[in-house]
Amino acid sequence: MQRSDFRCFHRLRVRWAEVDMQKIVFNAHYLMYVDTAMSDYWRALALPYEASMLALGGEMYVKKATVEYHASARLDDTLDVGLKCARIGNSSCLFTAGIFCGDRLLISAELVYVFADPATQTSRPVPPALRAIFESFEAGAEMAEVRTGDWNTLGRDAGRVRTDVFVHEQGIPAEVEADRHDISARHAVLYNRLGMPVAAGRLLQHAPGVGRIGRMAVDRSVRGAHWGRQLLDALVDAARARGDAEVQLHAQRSAEGFYRRAGFAVVGEPYEEAGIAHIAMARKL
Question: Does the pLDDT at position 138 exceed 90?
Answer without folding.
Answer: yes
